[in-house]
Specification:
Length: 732
């Protein structure tokens, strides 16, 4: 009986000697490694598939000798070179470079904590790359977010004033906001987008749907990730400078340099902006610095340091549509983020250690008592006067977050890519009136996560994972997520079905957990706010990837929302409880087309059916059960057209925001904010060599509207400037 196994080995030996293998790496033309995509080799041995590993590497073995055709499942990306390889007894190597189709595939990082093509993930996300950001020429980040399906924005005034972003009907504090991988939400989820400018950004990613399985607290509705510009591979030294002026005293200057030499790359930019705005006491000024520097230690090991500093000051006149402006109130803000990563990548494993720090220092000042007035609007008066209360020493809100983590990406076999990691967050704060004892809370959170991206058969991609979070306020919770993308049809006219579901959690704010005020006593027994989300959709490519259309239905359920409530109506003592419950569902439609080489079109529409299911509604009927969600429109959409000719680029964006629930909050009784339409236009002309001139018109039709009741938006604003770009890589 012992002879039989030996005999079988002898029979198999000639077959093994006649087989070979192919190894290689899949990257985009701008150097991004693509992990988790299917590589197919079709030849004498039939079709064999393998999913790429953490660094985009793949290996297909056991191939009979002969000629094979190579294809990569990435609709919207095409092979730069013919996909053929000869297989013999030895191992063959084939590195694959993918170039964008007319409507390119999106490569997203935030959805999986690693580079991946969006169509293989099953999740809903959008990526705004450097070229889109540059073409849009928005005065702040908020218009860019508003152009994204599923995202509503609201600004309490004009450029620099407090700004909020709502993803799929969630509260403004329900998105995890990250800058270069560092969470910048204040403890409890709040983030003010008002002073954030599109300065030196490489890309903006918006992931819709609960993502706490990867990021822990705050990611109930989604993730907004900002990534600082970095030099591309092989980029020489480049210099950039801009000078810009326009309406309302707008003045902006910027200078930057980037490049790479040997194993070092860098990008450094400095910007100064001042504007008077249109409202009294609403002047805004900001100085910003952004740095990204990388070091290639060896072929597999890279280190990177990124830092951003935004220092701003502005006047805060209040809801001037209802009465006189507060002429002495102001707001000062300094945001600092610093991150460092050390990554070692291999064919089957990648390891990364990261450390990040985020500080926001916000000071609200109101040195003078401006007295009282009765707010009014179009003949309607409030039931009670509105009074100003001086705060000479100011209200301080300074919070710090220190984050450390380890992540491993492991290729298991040819079809599994496993991501696992652990994180620690330490949060501290100094909060309150500077004339009184400050609240100085501290909280430490721990989290561990695992995710598996699986290639099932030849056309299905399954992503499944979860996280266990130990929070300093509410203890231990576990949150899962799963997503599936199924390629019904492959190629340039690919059809992809997708679905995802997940759960989210959010910690209480420092005030909600630890507040010491008699009128707002913190509740240390609060549970986390929770969400359960799911969506299903279809994406269709047509006309050789010149047209991409997608439709997504989503349903988000937000529970255990923390609400303020009166404990004693006689003394007005209050605290916080887990009581509120809201629901949001609807449709997202996105159409992207390139009918001609010189014309790009992008349209998006969001229908939102949102409702308050439970609420204490002690003070304002706008929060009563059955009411729609505050400042989140039922209908919203935008259409962008971009024209590109040699030496000339021009574009227009038409945005329509429907009627939405709101409140004046001063007793007039307004509960709806009217719809509005805004048209933005821009043109850029190359004058000579590296010198360009441009003109941008925001709100070209001079529409009078309010994103938040009481706070008029900026009227027509025209600005123009000159831009000088020298060296390779200077242009987007």
């Amino acid at each position: 009986m012992r002879v039989l196994p030996f005999f079988l080995i002898l029979l198999a030996a000639p077959a093994a000697a006649n087989t070979g293998s192919v190894v290689g790496q899949v990257r985009t033309s701008d150097g991004l490694a693509l992990s988790g995509v299917a590589v197919t080799l079709d030849g004498p041995g039939g079709a064999r598939r393998s999913a790429t590993g953490p660094d985009g590497s793949f290996r297909v073995g056991g191939l009979p000798a002969g000629e094979y055709t190579v294809s990569v499942d990435a609709p919207g990306l095409a092979l730069r070179d013919p996909g053929f390889v000869s297989v013999g007894p030895a191992e063959s190597r084939l590195d694959v470079v993918l170039v964008p189709a007319p409507v390119a595939e999106r490569v997203v990082v935030s959805a999986t904590r690693g580079e991946a093509t969006l169509s293989t993930l099953g999740v809903s996300a959008d990526v705004l790359d450097r070229r889109h950001i540059d073409d849009r020429a928005a005065p702040s980040l908020l218009p860019l977010l508003q152009d994204t399906a599923g995202v509503a924005v609201s600004r309490a005034g004009q450029v620099g004033q407090q700004g909020s972003a709502f993803i799929r009907g969630g509260e403004s504090r329900y998105a995890r906001v990250m800058v270069d991988g560092v969470p910048v939400n204040q403890p409890g989820g709040a983030f003010d987008f008002g002073t954030v400018l599109p300065f030196e950004l490489e890309r903006v990613e918006v992931v819709r749907g609960a993502a706490s399985s990867l990021y822990g607290t705050d990611a109930l509705a989604g993730v907004v990730s900002l990534q600082t510009r970095r030099a591309g591979p092989g980029e020489g030294i480049s210099l950039r400078a801009e000078a810009e002026g326009g309406s309302f005293g707008w003045q902006r200057g910027q200078s930057a340099t980037s490049g790479s030499r040997g194993g070092v790359d860098w990008s450094l930019g400095v910007q100064r902006l001042t504007t008077d705005n249109e409202a009294p006491n609403s002047a805004f000024e900001q100085t910003a610095v952004a740095l990204s520097s990388g070091l290639r230690i060896d072929a597999a090991t890279h280190a990177r340091v990124v830092a951003r500093l935004d220092d701003s000051a502005l006047g805060t006149p209040g809801p001037i549509a209802f009465g006189p402006a507060d002429l002495d109130a102001s707001f000062e803000r300094t945001d600092l983020t610093v991150s460092g990563t050390l990554r070692r990548s291999g064919v089957s494993a990648s390891h990364q250690i990261s450390l990040g720090y985020a500080r926001t220092n916000q000071l609200s000042l109101d040195p003078l008592d401006s007295g009282c007035h009765v707010p009014e609007w179009e003949g309607r008066q409030a039931l009670f006067p509105s009074c100003d209360f001086a705060r000479p020493d100011g209200f301080l809100n300074r919070t710090d977050r220190l984050v450390g983590g380890y992540q491993a990406d492991l290729s298991l076999g040819t079809r599994h890519l496993v991501t696992t990691g652990a994180e620690l967050e330490h949060e501290t704060g100094d909060i309150g009136n500077r004339s009184e004892d400050l609240l100085r809370p501290t909280r430490t959170n721990y989290g561990a996560y695992v995710q598996d991206r699986v290639l099932i058969g030849s056309r299905a991609y399954l992503t499944v994972g979860g996280r266990v979070e130990r929070n300093g306020s509410y203890g231990t919770r576990a949150v899962p997520r799963a997503a599936l993308a199924f390629r019904v049809r492959e190629g340039d006219d690919a059809t992809t079905l997708r679905a995802s579901a997940g759960m989210g959690i959010k910690e209480p704010s420092f005030f909600e957990s630890y507040g010491e005020s008699f009128f707002a006593k913190g509740n240390p027994e609060l549970d986390p706010e929770r969400s359960t989300t799911f969506d299903v959709g279809i994406e269709q490519r047509l006309l050789g990837s010149r047209l991409r259309a997608s439709v997504t239905f989503f349903h988000h359920d937000y529970r255990d929302q923390i609400a303020y409530t009166l404990v004693d109506p006689d003394t007005f003592a209050g605290s916080y409880i887990n009581l509120a419950h809201t629901r949001a569902q609807g449709l997202e439609v996105v159409v992207e087309a390139r009918p001609a080489s010189a014309l790009e079109l992008l349209g998006q529409y969001t229908f939102l059916d949102g409702e308050i299911l439970e609420s204490p509604s002690d003070f304002d009927p706008v929060y009563a059960p059955g009411q729609p969600l505050l400042r989140r429109p039922r209908h919203q959409g935008s259409l962008t057209a971009q024209l590109s000719f040699p030496g000339v680029r021009a574009g227009v964006t038409l945005a329509r925001v429907g009627e939405r629930a709101d409140s004046d909050f001063v007793g007039i009784g307004l509960v709806r904010s009217p719809a509005y339409t805004r048209l933005d236009a821009r043109v850029r002309v190359r004058l000579a060599g590296p010198l360009e001139a441009y003109v941008v018109a925001d709100n070209l039709l001079d529409e009078a509207y309010q994103e938040a009741l009481g706070f008029p938006a900026l009227g027509r604003a025209v600005r123009g400037g000159l831009r000088l770009r020298l060296g390779r890589g200077a242009r987007p």
